[in-house]
Design a protein that fits this description.
CATH topology of the largest domain: 60s Ribosomal Protein L30, Chain: A
CATH architecture of the largest domain: 2-Layer Sandwich
CATH superfamily of the largest domain: RutC-like
Number of domains: 2
Number of helices: 6
Strand order of the largest sheet: 1-2-3
Largest sheet: 3 strands, antiparallel
Strand content: 5-15%
């Protein structure tokens, strides 16, 4: 089932398309030019200003989908002149961090609204589906450590890490622990509660290993027996190969 992503902090579509579509855990973003979301007009200041505005709009669309530029796996930049590459690249690099998304930059004859640059993004990672039995076991362990009232399950987020991909072929659990402040992956990220982050987290994970392996790995065997991953390994690899293709058409 596909879901439309919308935000007022990016230009509204000027044709029959959406700002972004979420489908099967992927977010497909429409290309953005340097339109001011409020006026609907191109920003002034040349290609660098247009690139900045386009990236801010994409950032807003990603945010509306629950993602960030850290989740992006592929971008495509369209320029009306390759002479603008250095200026656009200078703006672009402020929005991405290592490991950088894959990227293509293509020169085109013209862009909508007379723009000089258009940027597309393709966030990655498939949906994280935590195994219900693993969740049940971990919830009990975490409850003993921090109190059941401090333990909760969260829905899928598009910034699901590669555990989302593993969840397609095997039972997984991806627990999170609080105790930090600031922006995830940001320069202001800071650990506040070292005991919770380091010790309590380690105790929970170690207890989970014991729970899975004790009594001849009875719980671990039960997890494997009841697990119903949505894909086989072969189906997952085929899906990724289909997503990673590039087609060229001659006019």
């Amino acid at each position: 089932m596909k879901r439309r992503i919308e935000t007022d902090f990016a230009p509204q579509p000027v044709g029959p398309y959406s700002q972004a579509i979420e489908w099967d855990g992927w977010i497909w973003c429409a290309g953005m030019v340097g339109l001011d979301p409020r006026s609907g007009q191109l920003v002034e200041g040349g290609v660098a200003a247009e690139a900045e505005r386009a990236l801010r709009s994409l950032e807003a669309v990603l945010d509306a989908a629950g993602a960030t530029f850290a989740d992006v796996v592929k971008t495509t930049i369209f320029l009306t002149s390759m002479g603008d590459f250095a200026a656009v690249n200078e703006v672009y690099k402020a929005y991405v961090a290592e490991p950088y998304p894959a990227r293509s930059t293509i020169a085109v004859a013209a862009l909508p609204m007379g723009a000089k640059v258009e940027i597309e993004t393709l966030p990655g990672y498939m949906p994280m589906r935590c195994d219900p039995l693993l969740v049940e076991r971990f919830r009990a362990i975490a409850g003993d450590l921090v109190g059941a009232e401090h333990v909760r399950a969260i829905a899928h987020r598009t910034g699901s890490t590669d555990m989302g991909d593993l969840a397609q072929v095997m039972p997984i659990i991806h627990p999170y622990v609080g105790g930090a402040k600031g922006t995830s992956h940001g320069a202001d990220f800071e650990i506040e509660d070292q005991n919770l982050i380091y010790l309590t987290n380690a105790k929970a994970l170690a207890s989970m290993v014991v729970d899975l392996l004790c009594d001849g790995a009875a719980v671990g065997r039960e997890v494997l027996a009841k697990a119903k991953p949505p894909m086989t390994k072969e189906a997952y690899l085929e899906f990724q190969r289909r997503m990673s293709r590039r087609e060229v058409y001659e006019g």
